[in-house]
Model the fold of this input.
Amino acid sequence: MKEKTYVDDVDRSMYDFRYEEKDYYKVDEGLTPEIVEQISAEKNDPDWMREFRLKSLEIYNSMQIPNWGPPIDGLDMEHIVTYVKPKTKMHADWDEVPQEIKDTFERLGIPQAERESLAGVGAQYDSELVYHNVREEVAAMGVIYTDLESAMHGEYGEMIRSHFMKLVPPTDHKFAALHGAVWSGGSFVYVPPGATVEIPLQSYFRLNAPGAGQFEHTLIIVDEGADLHFIEGCSAPKYNVANLHAGCVELFVGKNAKLRYSTIENWSKNMYNLNTKRAKVEAGGRMEWISGSFGSHTSYLYPMTILSGDDSRMEYTGITFAGEGQNLDTGMKVVHTGKNTSSAVNAKSISKSGGISTFRSAVVVQKTAAGARSAVDCSSLMLDGISQSDTIPAMDIRTKDAQIGHEAKIGRISDDAVFYLMSRGISEEDARAMIVSGFADSVSKELPLEYAVEMNNLIRLEMKGSIG
Done:
């Protein structure tokens, strides 16, 4: 195995666990029917899932690389390991997780956050869940929170079969097909009708192996009148080879239900983040996206919401920070099909040291969506003269009975503001970091306190160029 490469002591203090070959089992590099069969056998898939994987591989081989987003020429699937299994089973007791894995997660605040402010936690290490637990009082409400594979083999098998990759079919794009072929890990959540989970659930994904991919699948069903906040965290150390993240998130929001899905992604800068997220919202339902995107070499990340029911709503609040060597193509998509549906988007991006940040939005209003309303507001902050920021809006409006707006702003840090803060005894570096944190306030204020603190710390590290 290649050893890790670090940018500086910040990375070393966070990621000083060396990943030895004795600690895991993996399949060979590349993508063949034999490898897919090997993964399926390792997962003990039911026949329908095995067939689904092989069909997805056929679709993958028949499709071209998407023509949207930045180039991904540095990603060679012949040198990506699609399945890496730590040599440990999944545990419900944190004390039973192997010490070297516990050390890695505890440096990232897991499971301390569980003890303090979460209703349940799942922790995935490379391709497998190593820990999953939920508070007794939440389980007593009938809320199911477990790993997707256990649920697929249990009493919720038919529910999973009827929902799995129905919002994001393998035919959607090449990386969705790749996910369908080699997916592993992820969480399943079912919130029964009328249940309100007052404190969040969280899944944390850690890709630790060099030259590997992570393909977790998250499936959440929030039934009629229910309410849930789900938090997703992602990280990886930096290696001198390409890593790939091509997960999939499918969210089903029932009638008059509410789901908030918050993400803080801190991938390393050798990561290709090609994630797909999609939600379907029934009548009177509400979908909220909160997104903080940091790290990764290249990102394609456009959460999509289908407002299928009358009076359904969507809100998206996001921040992207692109530093040196990063090309982050992010944004959102929304499709209005029900009557009197509404969507509101507040997106911010920051670029520094030659980083490229692109906000790409798509608003589709079908003929059936009379009374639809949509407002998209995106703001960009460039911290120097060599960085780049672009906004690419697309609108497809098929009814006259709709109110649609788009606003975009691009600016730079005010020298007067920096001077004012410096005159109050604040260093120039801290002054700039404070201004950027204020720019990102619309996102951080929507997160629980400890996650807002984490996001502001990531911004400060990015300002110092200390994230790998």
Summary: The radius of gyration is 21 Å. Residues 19 and 383 are 36 Å apart (CA to CA). The longest strand covers residues 372-382.
